[in-house]
Amino acid sequence: YGPISVFKNFSWTVRQSERWIVVGGNGTGKTTLVDLITGENVQGYQQNIHLFGRQKGSGESIWDIKKQLGVISSELHMEYLIFSDPRFYRKVTAWDVVCSGLFDSIGLYVEPTSVQTAAVLQWIDRLGLQELVIAPNCNEALAALEPFSSSPLFFELSHGQQKLVLLCRAMVKEPRLLLLDEPTHGLSGSNRGKFLSLLQRLAQTSDVAIILVTHREDEIEMLGFPNVLRLQKEGRESSSSSAAL
Predict the structure, then answer these.
(1) Where do the domains of the chain lie, and which CATH numbers do they carry?
(2) Where do the ABC transporter domain residues begin and end (predicted)?
């Protein structure tokens, strides 16, 4: 950014199926690192960054990247809160939000195919979110035919429940990398525990690579991920538990 270098002599490799926690305080470059990966920071195309085996800026489109990347962030959460606000006369259900992950859209504009619907239902079941996404008292036969018919409105869910829905949204397209930017921000202690427990279950049953970015040191122990990247002021990597760097 102008004369300021956020990262200097920074090298980091994340391999398939690895689980990482990136931890650091304010001003250590956590958001910049996330944006370099997702493409939100255009300077990522001027650096020596390889994503999914291909150097960024070598002709790939942003959609090529998004197909392989599942993201949860405060920005995405806020976009969906604004979009689902009933004052805009939209009825955005939890089912809509989950299915929108198939298309990387805010809102559901294309009806999923039967194959896509089956994949979505599989992920809802896999994460144990049937009652949250489909509805607590939904008849099983009806759910099989029209799982969205009694899905609760996303806007009316609690903050913690919304985060769980967004996690399911990120996974329905079977991404190669799941990137979580401060996903427990604003959650109560119990809801934070629920979210991290679900993430642990996902890590144990999926081959997806996971990067969780946080400022909370206690989440290192709570998750038990084997790889930790610590960032200090000026964004320099200070220590890591993995030989991948």
Answers:
(1) 1-68+175-245 (3.40.50.300), 87-156+163-173 (no CATH)
(2) 1-242
